[in-house]
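Thread title: Can someone regenerate the structure for this chain?

I was given the following input by a collaborator and told the matching structure tokens would be attached. They weren't. Posting the sequence so someone can regenerate them.
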Amino acid sequence: MQKFKSLMMSIWPGHSTSLAREQITELLEESIRDTVTFDSHESMLLKNILGLRDIAATDVMVPRADIVSVDINDGVDVVMGLMVAANHSRVPVTRGSLDDVVGILHIKDVARCLHENNTVDLMSMLRQPIYISPTMRTMDLLQEMRLKRLHLALVVDEYGGTDGLIRIEDLVEEIVGEINDEHDDDTSPIFDVNGDGTALAEARLEIEQLEAHTGSLLEDEDRDEIDTLGGLVISLAGRVPGRGEIVRHPLGVEFEVLESNPRQVNLLKVRGLDRISVSADALPDKTPYQAPDKAPDKADA
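Best answer:
Regenerated them for you:
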């Protein structure tokens, strides 16, 4: 703790000694090992805040293909239906395509108009969006959105086309982790097992469900820390693996990352289920994580 206080004083106004970001990160990692200065959650928050400067808008945006939007010529029933179905309070309003966004619509403005029995005029309700470059740093974007009191930004390419969309929630989740509320999907995670020993699985799949097909994949001391497939894969890799990477378990089962973002794994392809069926006593000693292979071509998958 004294070391941390000394480092913090070096960046306090009036002190000439500067503190490199790398020093803070190193201290946080040291504190996790020593379990003295911070607990793991506090260290994670501080490291994530420091890491925002290294994350670009393109890393956290909702890609164009996944953007839910409405057209300016859509009727109010269509607009409300889309927003409710997508569980979005704000959506871009377009004129013909996502490359022509005329504004952002908030569902409460539509609801207020309907409550007052007024004619719904979408154009009069639109709020001006903020347009940003794909390379903009998320730390700068978070500051700009906070100052302008905006909750949604559009990511545009050099030609003015829409590349993606960022919600302020996406930026906050970069710091605190995934935020789920009472409206988020609580259906059972995908786990489709095929006859060839492979399976398609969401990262939120409980590890016990996978172990029903593989036998034990965790040692007893790890069970308090890891309870999902995503947690297992991140633990094996020592980081959040990217799309296309293959992570191998010492028992031989392989996990190919199909969907992920900088903070979490979302969807995986599991291979080797037909080769694995062991008890916890058969677990080999842990081995260092190997550099990931490139994912095989789809034709070979």
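The chain is about 35% helix and 20% strand.
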